[in-house]
Design the sequence.
């Protein structure tokens, strides 16, 4: 068994990415009044932390910064995700590595 231990700073890696946000066409949309339980599920699973609640419990979501991983679609595609598409060509995330 290996004794190699290391830590990865995910925020550091994510900050390398470049985004071309399509302001005229959101590639992810939620239903108008998403259930609290389903929304909270997305707060926990979205690796980019795009699903949020403020201190008053108000929900917000912004598709800018999406990593296009599809996790929210798998978790809530049949409940509160109304639309999930890949961004148009040349739009969305461009991954960069070190
Ligand atoms: S596709 Fe991934 S990164 Fe984008 S909003 Fe859904 S869970 Fe977050």
Sequence:
């Amino acid at each position: 068994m290996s004794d190699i231990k290391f830590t990865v700073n995910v925020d550091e890696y994510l900050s390398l990415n470049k985004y071309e946000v399509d302001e005229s066409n959101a590639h992810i949309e939620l239903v108008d009044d998403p259930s609290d339980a389903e929304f909270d599920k997305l707060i926990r699973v979205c690796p980019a932390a795009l699903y949020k609640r403020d201190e008053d419990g108000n929900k917000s979501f912004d598709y800018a910064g999406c990593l296009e991983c599809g996790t929210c679609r798998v978790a809530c595609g049949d409940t509160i995700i109304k639309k999930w598409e890949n961004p148009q060509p040349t739009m969305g995330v461009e991954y960069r590595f070190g």
Summary: The pocket of iron/sulfur cluster is lined by residues 28, 46-48, 50, 66-72 (CB under 6 Å).
